[in-house]
Specification:
By secondary structure, the chain is of the alpha+beta class. The protein contains 17 helices and 24 strands. It has 3 domains: about 140 residues; about 200 residues, Nucleotidyltransferase, domain 5 (2-Layer Sandwich); about 190 residues, Alpha-Beta Complex (DHBP synthase). InterPro entries: Carbam_trans_C, Carbam_trans_C_sf, Carbtransf_dom, NodU/CmcH_Carbamoyltrnsfr, Nodul_NodU.
């Protein structure tokens, strides 16, 4: 049974599940240096994604489209073979509390000259299912709470298990985009007319707030205005809560909230204001979660899955994990909409088989493309031991290995790696990536040594929790220590078959240090490099390693073009 899941809107993607195993998930931003958050406007993209895997539309038993904006159904304007088409789908949030997995069954999916039937499930339910089915809880047959906090919705708490899904409650009336909107009212991303949101701002604010400190008087201002605008029994708050299916109205009210906050906080530093707002939301989240669990004592499980765009906030994830409310907290590597195509396919699977565990790997993205390398670059075989020596000499390397990782974090498949021993390395990487000076660079570390260097240092393979750098290591690895002493750690087993693990073992043997700087290999504002040629054309890093072949900038202009996929080199 092959099920093809499709996410058409931002963070567009095509995923294929066969007999409960994820075969691939191709995010649109990771094709051809596409812009971040790229949507799928042309259905021919689905055909191309299947063809690249040696499949046709006739090899797929069922197509599923993730739902989107709409109270009762969503609508998509797309093209197929140059012809405009309109598709309808499920709404953003489920409309049948007793049957959240009820599908919208439709026809009209135009692929390769044929009109095919398809199913659609609510967007939020795709988040629940993608998080739970990829979790260790599903693998163990255990149920779990599931928190979904997306851009245009209030945080919703579900209970998911092999037998199905149940909505517990909405935790509090604050949309997920509030974090980014705060950044459009205060600080370096402030807009004169903040009527829309930038999907990239929220992640930048997590770094920026380390420049400030939370102040209780500022937190109190946000708390008072929260009651007045959102949670209380004022006419303003009641009207806001009655408009939960109108994204524009919700956003307007959130802007009003920050306008009112700004008028009372004119004398405060913007970094302190944003740090205080972060703390206010973190306390609100943990506090309301505590109340919700006290009222749900009939549920024996104390597992938690986190999904939705807010699942990328590593500090909130860490606060939930440190709260003591849960025995275990799981965040998939794609909590945002990059996992929605997988979730849509898993929904269709769950209708017939229940919420069963998915057999999957994080390295299920696009394969490296064969490409010609620009002139001015030389190519030679390079073992991982040789590459470790280059890194030890304080030279950064673009590292491209195997299939791309899923989700927005570079996890060693499409990474820029560098030694973490020089404080200048963070500045250099931020400069070549066109990033602000306060942005951190993450460490990738061998799992069995992580606790020696970080607290808690527990396994974190997807870079989704906050870890404190232990004092004795801060001067040894300054390039990966953030302004507040934390690190967005990624761990990997030294027994992993992935080349980045083998490289870390070689680097550790050479230097005694089991970690490297790790940041994404991409053009500014674009998805990961699809091939070595793109990394060479970018040209900001002088070494590009691609599946056993090292490309190095030369002074020559007549270098023969060569594609890294044309070589088979043992490392």
């Amino acid at each position: 049974m092959r099920i093809c899941g499709i996410k058409l809107t931002h963070d567009g993607a095509v995923a294929l599940i066969e007999d409960g195993k994820l075969i691939f998930c191709i995010e649109q931003e990771k094709r051809n240096n596409n812009p971040r958050y790229q949507s799928i406007d042309n259905l021919d993209t689905i055909v191309e994604a299947l063809n690249e895997q040696g499949l046709s539309i006739w090899d797929v038993d069922q197509f599923v489209i993730d739902g989107w904006d709409g109270e009762f159904e969503s609508e998509f304007q797309v093209f197929s073979e140059g012809v405009p088409r309109t598709l309808s789908g499920a709404p953003y949030v489920e409309r049948w509390p007793d049957n959240p997995l009820k599908s919208h069954d439709r026809s009209g999916l135009a692929l390769s000259g044929s009109i095919l039937p398809y199913k659609s499930f609510p967007h939020v339910i795709s988040h629940v299912v993608s998080a739970y089915c990829t979790s260790p809880f599903a693998k163990a047959g255990e149920p779990s709470f599931c928190l979904v906090w997306d851009g245009c919705i209030f945080p919703r708490l579900y209970y998911a298990g092999p037998k199905g899904i149940r909505l517990i409650k909405c935790l509090f009336p604050m949309i997920g985009h509030a974090y980014a909107v705060a950044g459009h009212h205060f600080g370096p991303y402030r807009k004169a007319d903040p009527k829309s949101w930038d999907l990239g701002v929220a992640g930048k604010l997590m770094a920026y707030i380390a420049l400030g400190a939370a102040q209780e008087n500022i937190v109190n201002v946000f708390r008072e205005l929260y009651e007045e605008h959102f949670a209380g029994e004022t006419l303003l708050a009641i009207g806001y809560r009655e408009n939960i299916h109108n994204a524009d109205a919700l956003l307007a009210r959130v802007n009003d909230y920050f306008d009112a906050s700004a008028s009372r906080l004119q004398c405060e530093k913007p970094e302190d204001v944003l740090a205080s707002f972060h703390v206010f939301l973190e306390r609100l989240l943990v506090g309301e979660m505590t109340i919700a669990l006290q009222m749900q004592s009939q549920f024996g499980s104390r597992n938690l899955c986190v999904a939705g765009g807010c699942g990328l906030n590593i500090k909130w994830n860490s606060a939930l994990r440190a709260s003591g409310l849960f025995d275990s907290v799981w965040v998939p590597p794609f909590p945002n909409d990059s996992g929605s195509a997988i979730g849509a396919a898993c929904c269709a699977l769950a209708v017939d088989h229940g919420l069963a565990p998915l057999d999957w790997s994080v390295y299920s993205g696009p394969r490296l493309k064969t490409s010609e390398i620009p002139r001015g670059w030389g190519a030679a075989p390079c073992t991982l031991a040789e590459l470790a020596r280059i890194l030890a000499s304080n030279e950064p390397v673009v590292f491209l290995a195997g299939r791309a990782e899923l989700g927005p974090r570079a996890l060693g498949g499409r990474s820029i790696l560098a030694a973490a021993t020089s404080p200048q390395m963070k500045d250099h990487l931020n400069e070549v990536k066109f990033r602000e000076h306060f942005r951190p660079v993450a460490p990738i570390c061998l799992e069995d040594r992580a606790q020696e260097i970080f607290s808690p240092g527990t396994p974190d393979p997807y870079m989704l929790f906050d870890h404190k750098t232990r004092p004795e290591w801060r001067e040894r690895i300054p390039a990966v220590v953030h302004l507040d002493g934390t690190a967005r750690l990624q761990t990997i087993s030294r027994n992993s078959e992935h080349d980045v693990s083998k490289l870390l073992v070689e680097y550790e043997s050479l230097t005694g240090i089991p970690l490297l700087c790790n940041t994404s290999a991409n053009y500014h504002g674009r998805g990961f490099f699809p091939d070595a040629a793109a990394a060479c054309e970018w040209g900001q890093i002088g070494h590009v390693w691609c599946d056993g072949l090292l490309f190095t900038k030369t002074s020559e202009t007549n270098v023969s073009p060569v594609g890294c996929a044309d070589f088979s080199v043992s490392a």
